[in-house]
Design goal:
By secondary structure, the protein is of the alpha+beta class. The protein is built from 10 helices and 12 strands. Helix content is about 40%, strand content about 25%. Strands 1, 2, 3, 4, 5, 6, 7 and 12 form an 8-stranded mixed β-sheet that branches. It starts with a strand and ends with a strand.
C-alpha cells in the first residue's frame, strides 16, 4: 500500500537572465528560491482526491481512475492526473490533501509551475512510481500538465528550475540539456508590485511577433535563426522589419547574448558579484525598452533598489506587473525597507533546493 501520509514541497524561481527565451529554444539562466508550495496528504479509502487550498479560499474534489473533465481554463491539478493516468499510472487509493505556499500568486515567480511540480511528485510517490525521485522526469511531466495540455505558449524554465533546484541553465537543441551550476550567490530581495499580470497574453504577443520577424528575415536569408551570429546582412534585414517585430527580435537577440555572458560567470573559477549585477541591469534595460514588459511602478521599485545598495535589479518573469528582484548581498534589509515604502511586498530570499519529499 505504500505510505499513509505524504508531504512534498517545490520552490518558486527567479529568472536570473533570459526572459522570453525558452519558448524560442534559446538558453535561460534560472534559480530556485526558498519560497515554496507544499502539499500534505493522507490516504483515504475512497478512490478520489479531496483538496483544500486555503491560500485561495477554495476546495476541490474529483474521482480517480477515469479521465477528468476540466472545469476551469487552466485546471492543472486535474490535468496532471490525466497525463499520468494516460501513461498507465494508477493510484490504489484516494488522498485528502492540503495545499499551502509562500510564493506570491500570479506574480511572475512560478507559483503555478511550482504547484504542478509538487503535485506531480506527490502523485508519483502515491503510486509508488520510480520517477518520483527523478527531477527531470517530474519537470517534463509538469510541463505536459501545465503547458502542452492546454496548448499554451510557455516554455520549460519554471518546471526545471523548480524540480532541479539551485542555479540552472537550460539549452535547447535536438535534446534539451539542463546544466546545474555551483551557486555563490548571496541574498536577493524579491518584491511583489501587487500589480496583477497577464502571463499568457504577454507570452503570446512576444512569441508571435518574434516568429513573424524571423520568417520575414528568412525570405531573404534562409539560414537565419535566433541562434545565428549577426553579420551586416542580418542586421540590415532586422532593421527593415516593422517596428514592433524589429524591437522584439532585437530584444530577443540582446537577451540571448546577456544570458550567455551570465552563464560564463557561473562557470568561472571566481564568481564576479558586481558583474552579475551589471548583467541584471542590462537585462532590465532590454525588457523595459525593447520587450516593453515593464511598467512605471516596476521601474520605480528597481530604481529604489539600486539607490539602496543593490548590485543589480530586474523584473522577474513574463512582465507587465508581478515581481522584481534585486541582488543585494549584505544590503538586503535596506533594500527591502525601501521597497516596502513603495507599497510593494518584499521578501528576502536565498537559493534553495528543488522538489523534495519529507
Amino acid at each position: 500500500m505504500g505510505k499513509d501520509s505524504i508531504h512534498v514541497s517545490a520552490p518558486g524561481r527567479l529568472c536570473l537572465l533570459g526572459e522570453h527565451q525558452d519558448y524560442f529554444g534559446l538558453p535561460i539562466l534560472a534559480a530556485a528560491i526558498d519560497l515554496r508550495i507544499s502539499i500534505a496528504g493522507d490516504r483515504i479509502p475512497e478512490k478520489k482526491v479531496r483538496l483544500d487550498l486555503p491560500d485561495i479560499g477554495e476546495k476541490e474534489e474529483f474521482p480517480l481512475g477515469e479521465t477528468l473533465a476540466y472545469s476551469q481554463e487552466r485546471d492543472y491539478l486535474k490535468s496532471a492526473v490525466n497525463i499520468l493516468q494516460r501513461q498507465g499510472l494508477s493510484l490504489p487509493s484516494g488522498w485528502d490533501c492540503r495545499v499551502q505556499g509562500t510564493i506570491p500568486i500570479n506574480s511572475g515567480t512560478a507559483s503555478s509551475s511550482s504547484l504542478v511540480v509538487a503535485w506531480v511528485r506527490f502523485l508519483l510517490e502515491a503510486a509508488g512510481d520510480s520517477r518520483s525521485t527523478e527531477p527531470e522526469s517530474i519537470a517534463e511531466l509538469a510541463f505536459q500538465a501545465e503547458v502542452a495540455e492546454f496548448e499554451e505558449p510557455g516554455g520549460k524554465m519554471d518546471h526545471y528550475a523548480s524540480a532541479l533546484g539551485g542555479v540552472i541553465s537550460l539549452h535547447f537543441g535536438e535534446r534539451m540539456e539542463a546544466r546545474q551550476h555551483q551557486s555563490h550567490l548571496g541574498e536577493f530581495v524579491l518584491a511583489d508590485s501587487l500589480i496583477r499580470k497577464n502571463t499568457t497574453g504577454t507570452l503570446g504577443f512576444i512569441k508571435s511577433n518574434v516568429l513573424n520577424g524571423v520568417r520575414s528575415i528568412q525570405t531573404e536569408l534562409p539560414d537565419f535563426s535566433l541562434k545565428s551570429g549577426l553579420g551586416e546582412r542580418e542586421r540590415e534585414r532586422i532593421a527593415a522589419l516593422p517596428p514592433v517585430e524589429r524591437r522584439l527580435v532585437e530584444g530577443t537577440l540582446q537577451t540571448r547574448d546577456v544570458t550567455a555572458e551570465g552563464e560564463r560567470l557561473f562557470q568561472a573559477d571566481e564568481f564576479d558579484h558586481e558583474r552579475f549585477g551589471v548583467l541584471l541591469n542590462r537585462q532590465q534595460d532590454v525588457v523595459r525598452d525593447l520587450l516593453q514588459i515593464s511598467v512605471p511602478k516596476i521601474d520605480r521599485m528597481i530604481e529604489a533598489s539600486l539607490e539602496s545598495g543593490a548590485l543589480g535589479a530586474k523584473i522577474n518573469g513574463s512582465g507587465q506587473g508581478g515581481c522584481i528582484f534585486a541582488y543585494a548581498p549584505g544590503r538586503a534589509e535596506e533594500v527591502a525597507e525601501a521597497l516596502r515604502r513603495l507599497d510593494s511586498r518584499p521578501f528576502i530570499v536565498r537559493i534553495d533546493t528543488g522538489v523534495t519529499s519529507d
